[in-house]
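Notebook, p. 212. Picked up where the previous page left off. The plan for this session was modest: take the two constructs that came back from the sequencing core last week, fold each one, and keep the raw output in the notebook itself so nobody has to go hunting through shared drives later. Recording the first one now, exactly as returned: residue sequence, then the structure token string.
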Amino acid sequence: MQNITTNTENVTAIFDTEMEVKSRYIQLKNIFSEKNLYYLFAEPIGDGVKWKTEIDGDIIGFSELSEDEKEVAKIVLFKKVSALKKVLGESAKDRKFIKQILEVPSEENIHIIKKDGVFNVVLTFWGHRKNVFQSKKNIVSNMIGNGNCLTIKLQDGSDAIPNFPIKVIYHNEENILTTDSSGEIVIDDILKNSMVEIEFDTNSHDSYKKISISENIKMEEDSMKKEFILEKKAPPPPPPPTPIDNNDNFWKRNWKWLILLLLLLLGLGLFLWKFYVPTPTVVVPIQPPVIIEQNINFTLIDKDTRQPIKGVKIISSGSDNKLTNEQGKATLRLIQSEGGKRVQFLMNGYQSKEITIESGIDIDKTIYLKPLKVKIEGEAGDPRINISWETKDDIDIHVFDPCKKKSIYHGNKTAVCNGKIGKLDVDNLGKGTGIRQENITWDSGGSRGEYIVIINKYSNNSHSPTKVTIRTINNGQTTKKIVYLKGQKQKNFIPFEKKDSQYTFKFTHEN
């Protein structure tokens, strides 16, 4: 982070107050966060005299650059402004907004930050203009223009040539573009007076005469068109007729028919042999199948947490379905013949799995199920508590920070303790489908001390135990735990009270 100092004489903001410019910077940072587009705008600090930027490097005024360097800077600025317009849109309101934020008092407010030969452009006093009569306006827009348009067309006489690749180099970037159904390529975002290089050849197209094109075009006009005519090759002459040799003997003239006759005779012989030569019949005795009974003791384990999984459905044809108990265990009685039997394991939140149990003696078998990946919702922070579940039940987080004044939950979504703000930024009532989540975080770090966390089952819409995954980030360490909440709707609770419908834990945060 470095400061940029610039002249403030006779400068006034387009917006109503300096505070609005600072608020507008926060707005720009949120709107143009993708690919750090907001880096184009310096951040106002203090009373607005000084500005700062997050880009490192040597700061150079635009007027101090050489002519070649100015052209490079214009290209960088043009690309940034084009990207900003694509983020917003083409409505009148969006065009006015872009015009206001790109207004600067003079070229002195256009700064180049150069590092390792790479140029970045930063604007200070954006959203300002000089408070003098007939002061210059639209300095940035006039410098880069609105983008010139170049149309490249390929045709064969009067017919367009589609799907033809052309290499186009502009703004120091190389692009391979393909002509459309009308044989055209349209590029509408080229900086005025910049150079465009076009290269293509017909080496990979056998239907055209060999040609290689390399041409440089200077974009001096708002709209320019370049046409190229390709010439087709003449069709090859037909092959000469094969001369007839009247001196060929009988065998040369009729060898194909003789081979065909031999094949027909061979086929007739095989047909007669099949129907008139008897085939001996071999009787194979049918052995009764061997029936084997065996008991398989399964233990189902979470592959990530190494904890037993309760409620896994175990399915196999010809056997009763089983569900694992609290210890993740279930016994399946298989009645099968030789060759083995397929067994399937199903559980919400886990990838299904299928194995083959070979016939034999009773065995103990441990199965590891892989949890489905869950995209964690809400803001990051330390500390942070995130819960996720799959049923329609309403599960709530309640967190008491070290001040212990009032818990953070859906009825009190923020709390301040020693200047540190904790907030519930993701709240779910069990509605919708898929994975439900709630998230409480301190994005700037929590207060030092003990935190008490209660996971409460507020409603029991599914009428069954709810599997809840708890993820906790504290002091840079991430922990994950799975609990099962039972019981009916609970509105009142006490921390560490032993109830099937709630789970309580605590941790200490070191600030």
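Okay, moving on. Second construct, recorded in the same format:
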Amino acid sequence: MTSTRPESVPCLPCREHAHREHRRLAEQIEHLGDAAGAPMSGQAAHRLRDLARRYSG
């Protein structure tokens, strides 16, 4: 099983995949958050982008 901690994932393809997916999710949250009255948070998108950055590092 892959770790949820980016620093503990040694497999480069796994890290690249996680990086892409977290960025994609952040973009989706931002897009959904643009709708009036949407419960999506810019803070959640920021956390996902930070996590994506950690996977790419």
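Notes on construct two before I forget. The mean pLDDT is 86.
Flagging for discussion at group meeting.
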